[in-house]
Amino acid sequence: MKIEDNSTLLFTGDSITDAGRARPVGEGLAGQLGAGYVHLAASHLSAFHSQRRIRILNTGVGGDTTRDLSARWEADVLAPKPDYVSCMIGINDCWRHFGHFWDDSLLVSVDEYKNTLRRLADMTLPKVKGMVFMTPYYFVAEREEPMRARMDIYRAAMKDVATEKGIPCFDTQEPIDRALAHAHPCMFAADRVHPNTNGHLILARAFLEGVNLW
Q1: Angle between helices 146-165 and 173-180 in degrees, nearest 10
Q2: Which of these is catalytic: 15, 18, 76, 86?
Q3: Of residues 5, 76, 194, 200, which has the active-site annotation?
Q4: CA distance 151 to 201
């Protein structure tokens, strides 16, 4: 996907996107975009593509599942009227099957996950120039590890919906796996989920390469 000049690009998702961004909408300098991949992507655009005049917004919210994101989609994603939307969601949908398994009401099944992504795409595509998904991930290389194995299922589910809806889907797990072939996960995310700057740089590059701006 190519982002046109003089466009507004909105990132949304969970804590990985949020990364301490300003409220109600993260925009601008001095940490307003948070300290994560959105900030790094915006810094890259400012340093190397400033003539493109691409405005960056961040409406990520820590702890969100697709269910939570869907509830605020109209206000936090569509109301700002972006030209392009990037959505990274699914990590909380997955890990709650491990961290909240005793409360079925909090669990988001793969079917619900897919159906929600479909609904968000249907709501958004008629109103924007472009939309992309960024897959959930886990900073663990061993595919048989239980959470990594389940995360791969949600990751594949997002790819299925993206193919169905004709939406570009940037796989974040693949570059993470390449990095993990040479370094321990603690180099990128101490808890295997929330990245440090090294980990966020992997995510930023995955997005920027996907939109041909790296």
Answers
A1: 140
A2: 15
A3: 194
A4: 20
- Name residue 130's amino acid: G
How far apart are alpha carbons 16 and 19 in whole angstroms?
6
Q: Which of 87, 76, 172 is nearest to 131 (CA)?
A: 87
In sequence order, what DSSP letters do the residues of 121-159 get, joined into one string? HHHHGGGSSEEEEE----S---TTSHHHHHHHHHHHHHH
The Cα 203–Cα 62 span in angstroms is 17
> Taking the C-alpha atoms of 43, 47, 48 and 54 in order, what is their torsion angle to the nearest 10 degrees?
60
Query: Is 43 among the catalytic positions?
Result: no
Q: Which of 68, 97, 191, 200 is catalytic?
A: 191
In sequence order, which ranges of 52-196 are alpha helices (DSSP H)?
A: 66-73, 91-99, 110-124, 146-165, 173-180
Q: Is 15 an active-site residue?
A: yes
70 labelled catalytic: no
Q: What is the pLDDT along the chain (214 residues), one digit of tens a residue?
A: 899 999 999 999 999 999 999 999 999 987 999 999 999 999 999 999 999 999 999 999 999 999 999 999 999 999 999 999 999 999 999 988 887 777 788 889 999 999 999 999 999 999 999 999 999 999 999 999 999 999 999 999 999 999 999 999 999 999 999 999 999 999 999 999 999 999 999 999 999 999 999 9
